[in-house]
Design a protein that fits this description.
The complex is a heterodimer of chains A (436) and B (540). Chain A has 436 residues and is of the alpha/beta class. Chain A has 15 helices and 14 strands. In chain A, 38% of the residues lie in helices and 15% in strands. Chain B folds into 2 domains: 8-187 and 402-466 and 479-524, Rossmann fold (3-Layer(aba) Sandwich), CATH 3.40.50; 191-393, no CATH class. A 10-stranded mixed β-sheet of chain B has the order 1-2-3-5-4-6-7-8-9-10, with helices on both faces. The chains are: A alpha/beta (436), B alpha/beta (540).
Chain lengths: 436, 540
Amino acid sequence: MLVHRRTKRGKLAITFVATAALAISALPAHAVNAYKVDGVSATTITLGITSPLTGAAAPGYNKVPYAMQAYFNYVNDNGGVNGRKIKLIIKDDAYNPVLAKSVTNDLVLQSKVFALVGSLGTAENEATTRFINDHNVPRLFINTGYSGFADATKYPTTYTVLPSYVMEAKIMGQYIKDNFAGKSVAIIYQDDDFGADALKGFAVAGTKFIAKIPYASGSQADPTVVGKWISGLAQAKPDVTIMFGVSSATAAALGGAYKAGFKTQWILGSVGGDGTTIATVAGPTAVGLLYGAIGASFLPAPTDTSDPYIAQFQAINTKYNAGASFDNNVLQGMNTAMLTVEALRAAGTNLTRASLLKAIAKSGSTFASAGFAPLGYSASSHVGYNGYWFGSYGPTGAIKPIGGTYTLYTTDSGSGAVTQTVSKRPAMPAKGLPNN
Amino acid sequence: MKTLLNLKRTAVLASAVLVITGLVSIPTASAAPLCDGKFPVQSCIGATSDGAPYVMQVPANFNGTVYLWSHGYRYNVDLPAALPGIGGYKITNTPEPGPVPGGDTSVIKYLLGKGFAVMGSGFARQGWNADSGVATDEELITTFESKFTNTTHVIAWGASLGGFITQTLAEKDAAALSAAGPLCVASPSVEAELQMAGDFLWGLKTFFDPSIKAGNYSAGAAGYAEAMGDLGKVFTVLGKLQANIASGAWPDTTPAAVHAVGLDQVPSRSALLLLGLMAGIPTQSAHFDSTTGPGSVNSSAYTSFAAAASPALAILENGATAAALAVLVTYDVEQQSGGAIFDNTKTDYATRVASEATVFNAALSGGTATAGLLGYLAQAPRAAANPTAVAKMRSLAQWTGKISVPTVAMTGVADPVTPAGDLTYMAQQYAKQWQAQHLATLGKGRPAYDLIALFGTTPAHYTTFDAKGAPITKTPAANGTNHCNFNVKQYIAVADLLAYASSTGHDMAGGKLYTTVRKMGGTTRDLQFAPALPKFYAAD
């Protein structure tokens, strides 16, 4: 028989200094967040972002967080959000999901960020999903078009902003049907959820391919792999070739085709058509390879200074972003930051994670932004933009709308029709400062 | 990377031997301990009624508190010296009175210097011995208290299977203990513990060498021969996979069906990684972080190694341990249970890895390759268990996560044998218990929170490379990796936390705890930090 040795238990009246805090933190994470608001003080809102600042995917994407920071600093200099300044903590994930998980842990547990905004990459966001969900951290306006993130049950605190890749493919398929009827079509696509979404969308659109060339993410750095793409295309001889990958893959494909003397009408997915990124990856002369290609975007052309959003963002970029060249990445970053400010404003002074998510659900669809397509946020939808316009690339790598005007196509990620729409975006707030 | 598969260097199943000098023979079973009466620390030896040899070390200034250590899993069979990768092994029941990381006795000396006594046995039988281990520990407590009547507190602690025994003891005999420290605790049941290893072993057999028996071993000498044969085959095939990491070629023992369907066009490292993900083996190992590559951080070589090669190498390094565990523990528990115990007839591996397939898409060589590999596995013959044997296995000791004495638990986030998720499971179970307790005592103040769950974390980057860009695998295992890979500082910090809990009746909390953990280094006790549950419990 064992002897009862815990004689002091129950007799000691121990006062714990932090009894309340201990008790609260002992609760499961979802309960914890009802009691305290990490990342919010009387004067500051601390946000976090993970993005590739180093590594092969960094060129281009590494401009997004700094553009966001520039816009936040501009807002801070103009009074902040409900009296609070926004602090953005930027973490490098090198486009590596394991590192993304690690730095996201740091942002939430050590830096105590209130929310994550603009984090980039499908795999990187998926890698942190369980953690984000467990801790009920708002993950806003993520930079991936994977349609799966629209599942509000599986990703309850996640809001997308890019149109999904399914939408993009459906719209592209419709565009091809309207403009390249009877032409043969091939596709090079990233062999993951990105590409799977694309194939799903093209299937809905009824696009038939004479060649489908998948590649594993990252393998575009291997010249042998690129050589196989081009030989595959040369064999199939498509009139139209869709490049549905990241910009480094686009650069590799266009360069490989050029060297091999292979000609086709290139149509580039929105993710892979940024001229300045291609120039960074493949050298300044590579942008010339874009000439004549067709691309898609949901934001105005970065060079279109007649657009009030572009003009304002360019001015902010000049003053607050150390003169970084203004391109799609900077535009996307500033636009995301503007949406974030509007969401924070809508959540009110008594800011909590719950109030932030509720505010986006309630009024997110009315937020002013540079995007031509409407925002789909509602109580039942975490989906952002839903449409694209098409443009052609000039010799400098700049994209301009075909026909001189932005013709918008919208759709959903399901079987809904593709519709040609007149954009009715909200007017830009005075001086680019949200007033919602 | 010659040492990658050298299991001898891991702390997996091995136990350090503490040499007790001055005592010549162990007394007969259940006799009073034989003490040498030395000053300032006397050593006592003896054997419990079931024959487990034990050792007690008691300082002259004994303060009334004794630490009872339960050692981890030891092989219950001799291993032939000729076995590749794992080498020879002789069964031992040498008693261990405390942790001896890397042969360093500093932890024990530290405790003795503080006036604590330490004790531990070598257990009566080796292998999966939780039931007899708990009985041995119970008897050891009684024996110690009879010999040293000024004993006031007993702190139980142990690592791996010893952590399992500690937790089980704490749930069964809470009144006998003042604190408990289950470290790198094995899964709540042997069935759960074997799930990871079993899935991985089945995968190795299915993809790379169908001659691996992978369980359902025969009785007697024939079964021993089969298990030893499996060990040799497993380490041989892992060696081939290691040699082919760069080329992606499949081992020459790969079944013809793999070649027939063209799966061999997928790099073998991707197939290996998939097996690891299916089983829930960590994608960070002693030397591979899955985040670092050779050369410039902006080079494609850096990116591709970090994203594509490193996760597979981590699975290889961790998988060697998992596979050895699979063979030896499966053999052991099958002998105890009387038949096959691993069953994956209803396992949907595709669903199980749905999220990881997205996360590790690049390392898996893309969605098409992953679908092909999973499709092959879906069609492959499965392992069916013997229901009677399973029932018997389930009758073996299990822990539930009930906390009745202040508990300090610690594990590494990338432990390849006892997944960190086991501690998550314990914490989740206790959170429910605490909430129920809180609800039952509303208005009477919040109950104390008596589980400190400590996780050894991995650095963001730790893989190193030589001048030629080859990964270096001879450095010590990174913090948070390998099995029960704790240093002296961490053990001592846990011992101090246990002493505090033992003397006050509750776990340390607040700023004092925060400071203690921070000083440990490489450890987090954030209650919101929760590694994924093992695959046995969760689909993620």
